[in-house]
User: Fold these one by one.
Assistant:
Number 1:
Amino acid sequence: MDSADPLDGYSVTEVVQKAPLAKNDIYGSLFLYLQDTILKFCKQVKRLKVSFQLFQTDAVRLPSMIQQREMSKTRFDRIEVSNIGDRGYLGPQMTLATFGPLLKIKAENPHATLLLLFLNAIHEVSTAEDHLGSMKPEIERIRKYLELDPAVFRNRDGMKYSADFHRFNDGRLMFRDFDKLFSRFHQECQLDKIGEAVGLEMKWKNTIIEPWPMRIKKNATQDEFNFLLGSSHTGSERYVEWRSLA
């Protein structure tokens, strides 16, 4: 994810499954998790004929650099661009226009996919009305996992300095209707229209990664709630997969 903390790039639930004897050594767990992942990757690479090319450049310059390297006819089966499609960076329109032409068409590979991650879409379209209007159902759900002393709400002056209040408020966001808010983002950005303009269509059912991999599940356990609340993730991280129209 978009953070300097290495733990934020991985699912805490998966990381803790590699916990050493010191069960609370979270970074020790991350070390073992990454060690296992990298070893699996190395073993897989040994069985394949594969090469890597690394470029250090602005993302929008990458297509021209590929042409300069005499790779102008190269198209790709999978393109993953992290969260540069967020409107604070390139935005969805420029991202699709830049990388869409590099994706294989259906005749070459019907499964070729351009993968975008939206970290900020939900926050960009959320309003004060959304925050207040969803308060009751969110509080009802979060109280299953986290209680807050009513006295905290009565002390309005001290509330903004209360760690318990901020923990409760952050946890409440995890239960927001992200589908409704992402639909608003979809309409504001006209994702269908800008995709069609560059020969792409949005998959309505993801085939590589689930749309909301970090979102808390309906019947989440207390541990699953605690792991998400203790991480930098909110559950609003949204993956969108695109494929060629041709």
Number 2:
Amino acid sequence: MATQLLTMRTLQLATRQLRSPILRHITPRRFASSEAPKLVGPMDNAFNRDRLAVKQHAAQSADLWRKLCIYVVIPAILLAGLNAKNLWDEHWEHWDHMPPLEERVQYPYMNIRNKAFPWGDGDKVREPLQIVHSWNPKVNYHRKESE
């Protein structure tokens, strides 16, 4: 226990010394950062200065959009997905409390079929049109006239 306290105290003192202004001046904080290149001599003309300004602006804009995507868009997508999941679950909880499809009231305006559909009887769909018009037996029900 005493050795742990001694080690912790030593580390605290060492980190405090590393934070001193003298060492901070000797070792800069950002080791891998690069400053804007200095244009000297014949390279220092209006074209090169303008080009350098455009590069710096592009870097700042790219950094802004990267931060926006990470800190705004991704959380917004996650929140929207969570909201959609909650709404989906609430919707199907509502369907669990409804009577079975066969016992529901068939109103005259529901499932009107005056003529045959080009793809069949309208209840089931052949394979090529499955993507365009699908029949879901969990929610769609058509009581036949013969019943």
Number 3:
Amino acid sequence: MSTNNPVAEIDNSGAAAVSKEQFCIAGLLTTVYGLEQLHADASQVGCLWLLHPRLQTQECMEPLARSMISDWNSRRTDDGTAGGDASSLGPVAVSFDQRNHGSRSVLPLANEAWRSGNRRHAQDMFSIYHGTAMDTSLLLDHLESYIFPSASRRIATNIVVGISLGGHAAWQCVVHEPRIKAAVVGIGCPDYIRLMSHRAAKSKLDSWITTTLEPGASFIGSADFPPTLVEAVQKWDPAGLLMNEQYASTDHSRRSNLNRETVERHLGGKSIFSQSGGVDKLVPYSCSQPFLAFLESIAASSTSSSGGGSKLIRLKDVVYADVAHEMTTEMLNDATAFVMQLLHEARTSVAR
């Protein structure tokens, strides 16, 4: 089975070309876009981590790199001096193959779904994009020593942009990696149990339909979604970690306070833009909506303990009507505008 490339229809023909250079970092073939376009005065860098969809490779993220880097660099005046934002901070973008994809392919079946004969779909998909989040943190440790070996520039902010499988990974990055300050999640899901339950029902797995109770009652904890996978989800999945139900039936206020404290510890001061397709059948918005509503309720009632009266989390949740499992040009334009605002804020912070 193959799936359509969710970014195949993006039109960024108006975006300028940007340089790209490949490095082998920690054994990972890593592409860095935009190094040659950095302004001579840009001592600080905003790094955009581009995480690709399932069954694709890092090359498919080049349109996003071109759009975001060229948009920022177009803010220069004709003589190359600062046109508002472009001089003191500049962007680069980084892409690499997710585990078992592209240059790292080991077993193609492990990238497939239950319907395509992969009986370990739940274990494979979660472990692969969990690995991608870990790889992002690993590359964060080492990237600067490769691209700026003389320490002439430093990375001032990190933003993760993920599509589909990369969107799932982007959620883990922004929740668990303190150096990631923002995320754009395109058609990704923060709630793995809801997503896999939806997929198990659509696939008519025996563990979903063979039960004396209501359909699905035996799925979680079955061979299709083993107990130890549940433990991993509770540790690493945003919904599994942050939507703690421990005190749901005994002490609601204590549960709410614990959730708020946990959310602040993982997401305090961060910005998230969730983009969903209104008719996406593969990663439906209904699987993400409960967690996003939970996050919004905490964001609306809290300010960050870091001070200044700022909101605990900045969450933008947009559902694009009539969009299936794809990243459209409109979605890319909105994502680019969101990233431009974040880079402007980082540049302003650096200038203080």
Number 4:
Amino acid sequence: MAEQTLNLPSLFLALALLGLSIRYFFFSPSSSSTRAVSDRNTANPEHIEQIAQMFPQLSRRDIQWDLQRNGGSVQATTERVLSGRGLERPPPSFQPIQPPASSSSTAPAAPPPPKSSHPDLITRYKLESRISQPHVTRPEEEKPKPPTWSQNKTERQTLLQKRREDMVLAARRKLEEKERERAVK
């Protein structure tokens, strides 16, 4: 019988097959480890709620997208918001996982939008003294020609402020006239 010899390419092929088979049998991912990988890609609803309570101006969808991108790290998401970078908008194809209905019923209701410290424009622009003054309507001929645009910044600012105040007062007077007409009817 003739002697059998192994040549170099067949030796490499045999080693590669041996290595792949050892890796397959001893290092294959089990079903629990693949589940852990898929769980890591979804954001924990408790983490979303925690960040939403800290930063109510952020949408839950943006928070969930950022948590999924950084592996569920609340600290990384918080740092990103506090550093002023903000959160990236998720792509339109991103569909966030909605929390179960039972947890949403136990969650506190969203706080109502904050009330502004100035309830109306008259108070906001401090026009109470001017509203009590009688309004004098001028005929078309007597109306002054609007001043031209000034090169001086302070003059422009005072002109625009006066025009804003006049518009607010004119709107208020129109509203009062409509209310009087309704009361008469």
